[in-house]
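Re: the request from the purification team.
They wanted to know what the chain is likely to look like in 3D before they choose a buffer screen. I agreed to run a prediction and write the result into the notebook, where they can find it.
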Amino acid sequence: MTYKGRLLGLLGVLTLAVAAGMPAQASVINYGVVPIGGTPSFTSPTGFLQDATIFNLGGGIDTVNLVGPGDASGLIPGSVVNITPQTINLVAFTPIVKTWPGFLETLTSIADLNRSQPNALGIVLLGVVTGQACPTCASFVNTPIELAFSANQPGGPGHLVGWSNTDVTLIPIPTTSLPNSLPLFGAGLVGLGLLVRRRHQKP
């Protein structure tokens, strides 16, 4: 094999080494929201929350209170998420849209409804999310997402109503991590240097 051929071969091996050293990292949407202000309420034939047919989020400021591991939403605690409409109709459900910078989340169906606890209500909604927090961040395109909603009214009818929800994508989006490839890249450079040195040392 000619010197040029060996050099090109080594460069090819080096390229493969760099690619192999860039393992997939899981990126997800994983955040929670609580209202600040507003007046959450509900409509119920019995007056009890667990029997609610419509839940009103209350028109407060829907604020991120937690960000989970691997989250790539770009949100931080204190960020504001827009939720429309502000009602969840449990009898004739209509899609709910959540937006924040760079993202659109659309919840289209009720997957689960928990009425087993007094003065409490649990709802699981399913939908998709599309967006990207930055040009080099993980990109989500119609990625399935689940929203777990929890409401409570400690003390029962006549007392204040509270709620919270968490959103988690159901399919992690792979991203790459360049730093993990650097040792292999360095090893390839060393090999390339040795080949060049041997070439120059030949009479």
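For the purification team: The chain has a mean pLDDT of 84.
Please add any questions underneath this entry.
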